[in-house]
Write a structure and sequence with these properties.
globular, protein-containing complex binding, NAD(P)-bd_dom_sf, single chain, NAD(P)-bd_dom, Rossmann fold
């Protein structure tokens, strides 16, 4: 079986990808800044990264930091992967990185370009936002008595386990370049998602839609982060996700 390195392998997506690859019989190395034996800061690179990549055939690059540093990390990973003779680099990106001028999205797009020009064989999968991310946003907004929502915004949240399944399958298949995007089964207004969250958590909040401004808001408002119809849709809805969380917490 293949020896595979998963960067960000302790994160929301990476840990699921690593588990699926192990379940299929592959030797999986998990690289993370604080997870021995492959505790590596990708932005620094160095001998520890070379050691983690020794004998690796495929890299699944899930590590990412919205606070910055993704381009530098990708450059170090690509350089080390070339030295190690890696045969396949699979990367998870975000739907809309080429259309929404959000700083983090621009960074993800720059990483895509680095991978495409790396000389390595590669696969890039873009996905919409995970349910976990949407929940985190709503939890933060619900801390106030009134939930202030950006007016006119929609989202298309996807189940992270479905993304993990798809990415693991792509990692063990031949390099495929840019593959069809993966998104959630429903495009929902942020207000609709907020109401589902409040119902599931038995909370009461007034909802107020606030118009914003700027190029980034306009791009989100116009749906630059949503998928085109011909691409792949997942099955798990936001309500499915909330119900599963409630069951796990003993609330249902």
């Amino acid at each position: 079986m293949t020896t595979i390195l998963v960067t960000g392998g302790t994160g929301t997506l990476g840990r699921l990808v690593a588990a699926r690859l192990r379940a299929d019989g592959h030797e999986v190395r998990v690289l993370s800044r604080h997870a021995p034996p492959y505790a590596v800061d990708l932005r620094a690179g160095g001998p520890a990264l070379d050691a983690a990549l020794a004998g690796v055939e495929t890299v699944v690059h899930c590590a990412s930091n919205p606070g910055g540093g993704d381009e530098k990390a990708a450059a170090r990973l690509i350089e080390a992967s070339r030295r190690a003779g890696v045969r396949h680099l699979a990367y998870i990106s975000i739907v809309g990185v080429d259309l929404v001028p959000y700083r983090y999205y621009r960074s993800k797009l720059a990483v895509e370009r680095r991978i495409e020009e790396s000389g390595l064989a590669w696969t890039i999968l873009r996905a919409t936002q995970f349910h976990d991310f949407v929940l985190g946003v709503l939890q933060a907004l619900a801390k106030a008595p009134v939930m202030l929502l950006p007016a006119g915004l929609s989202d298309q949240p996807v189940e992270v386990t479905e993304v993990a399944d798809r990415l693991a399958a792509l990692a063990t298949a031949p390099p495929a370049g840019r593959v069809p995007d993966l998104g959630g089964p429903e495009i929902r207004t942020l207000e609709s998602l907020a109401r589902s969250y409040l119902t599931a958590t038995d909370r009461r909040r007034a909802l107020v839609n606030i118009p914003l401004w700027g190029r980034t808001y306009r791009a989100f408002h116009e749906g630059g982060h949503l998928m085109e119809d011909e691409h792949t849709l997942g099955k798990g809805t936001f309500e499915d996700y909330l119900t599963r969380r409630a069951v796990a917490a003993g609330r249902a």
